[in-house]
């Protein structure tokens, strides 16, 4: 069933303005000649990802199929959630801009007859909701089929999803025995994937299953950090930070000590507990103020690009030497707020749910490796 609280939290994305309808885009899976396989295993496979840009980079999405024969959908590959949601033909007018799964055309479809609602927080201070039906069918990603996969058909959705250029979401959260990972092992691949998330000005974003694309490493070896053990509250791609620096100032350690930092490709900005958010903003500008109901902050648009806002997180590596991951100043400006176009939303949202969330604002500056089998994450700075 649904882990709705954490799903809505970890799938938080920032809505800056209404996204215009996008044309249908065909994505073609491809095999890269520079992919690094492991000895004795099948070759990794990759596909390009498209970037939803709406004043800032919001989501990266690509193709996946459901059913027999396969029906293809564009989805966000979301490392901060575990379930898949795609529109069904029951969704009708509220999903008219998305592809809709025709369950009557699939010979392997099973209706589990469970319904529910999933709420998604938006950084602008509101919620969007999906009405869903729990079902079972075959899921196929880059030629790797996972039979008997439980997912959700969207039967209705609120207006915020109406013009999304993708159809749904597929969770890529840390679940060693769930999702697509058992099927990857059966196909001879390690349960590992890599993401090349890039700014819209760079393009060529990519998802790789079962290996690492050496062409993205810039001649460097990745640095790895072990993910934190699951707790009753979290079972995510989480690392623990030992130091947070904003510009030239350090944040007091007692504000983040023991806090799990969840890496979430489905979130565009970063989200921290309120006291930590306030402390980080204090090192950028005292004039950044709360705006909205769900922890959004804002600053005058005509001044925001003059603010230095370099944010660096320090993490332990598997070799013992700590390493830094940095968000540059240009990520501070998320874009004008709908309620007040003269005020621009700033990067950090405040939300007191016991974890921190690090999203695309950092991930698009690093090639990231998500290693389920070894419970670790790897990073190499992008060379663009």
From TrEMBL:
Matches recorded under SUPFAM superfamilies: Acid proteases
Domain of life: Eukaryota
GO biological process: proteolysis
Annotated signal sequence range: 1-17
Keywords, ordered alphabetically: Disulfide bond, Signal
GO molecular function annotations of the record: aspartic-type endopeptidase activity
InterPro entries, alphabetized: Aspartic_peptidase_A1, Pepsin-like_dom, PEPTIDASE_A1, Peptidase_aspartic_dom_sf
The protein's name in its UniProt record: Peptidase A1 domain-containing protein
Cysteine disulfide links: 91-95
Family: Belongs to the peptidase A1 family.
Keyword Signal among record annotations: yes
Gene3D superfamilies registered for this protein in UniProt: Acid Proteases
Organism of provenance: Dentipellis fragilis
Residues at the active site: 78, 264
Domain named Peptidase A1: residues: 60-380
């Amino acid at each position: 069933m649904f882990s709705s609280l954490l799903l809505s939290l970890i799938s938080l994305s920032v809505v800056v303005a209404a996204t215009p309808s996008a044309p249908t885009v065909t994505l073609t899976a491809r095999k890269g000649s520079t992919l690094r396989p492991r000895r004795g295993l099948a070759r990794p496979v990759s596909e390009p990802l498209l970037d939803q840009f709406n004043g800032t980079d919001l989501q990266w999405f690509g193709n996946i199929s459901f059913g027999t024969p396969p029906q293809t959908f564009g989805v966000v590959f979301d490392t901060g959630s575990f379930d898949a949601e795609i529109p069904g033909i029951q969704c009708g007018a509220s999903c008219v801009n998305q592809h809709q799964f025709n369950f009557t055309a699939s010979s392997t479809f099973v209706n589990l007859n469970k319904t529910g609602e999933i709420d998604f927080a938006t950084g602008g201070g509101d919620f969007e909701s999906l009405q869903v039906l729990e079902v079972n069918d075959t899921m196929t990603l880059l030629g790797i089929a996972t039979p008997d996969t439980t997912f959700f058909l969207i039967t209705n959705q609120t207006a915020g999803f109406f013009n999304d250029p993708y159809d749904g979401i597929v969770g890529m959260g840390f679940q060693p025995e769930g999702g697509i990972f058992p099927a990857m092992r059966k196909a001879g691949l390690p349960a590992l994937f890599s993401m090349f998330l890039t700014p819209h000005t760079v393009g060529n974003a990519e998802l790789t299953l079962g290996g690492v694309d050496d062409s993205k490493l810039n001649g460097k070896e990745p640095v790895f950090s072990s993910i934190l053990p699951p707790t009753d509250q979290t079972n995510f791609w989480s690392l623990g930070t030992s130091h947070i620096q904003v510009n030239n100032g350090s944040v007091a350690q007692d504000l983040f000590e023991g806090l799990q930092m969840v890496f979430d490709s489905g979130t565009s900005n970063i989200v921290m507990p309120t006291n930590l958010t306030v402390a980080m903003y204090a090192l950028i500008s005292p004039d950044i103020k709360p705006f909205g109901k769900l922890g959004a902050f804002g600053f005058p648009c005509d001044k925001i690009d003059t603010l230095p806002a370099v944010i660096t997180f320090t993490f332990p590596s598997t070799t013992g030497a700590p390493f830094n991951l940095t968000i540059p100043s240009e990520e501070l400006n998320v874009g004008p707020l709908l309620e007040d176009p003269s005020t621009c939303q700033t990067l950090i949202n405040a939300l007191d749910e016991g974890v921190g969330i690090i999203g695309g604002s950092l991930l698009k500056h690093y090639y990231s490796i998500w290693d389920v089998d070894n419970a670790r994450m790897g990073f190499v700075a992008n060379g663009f």
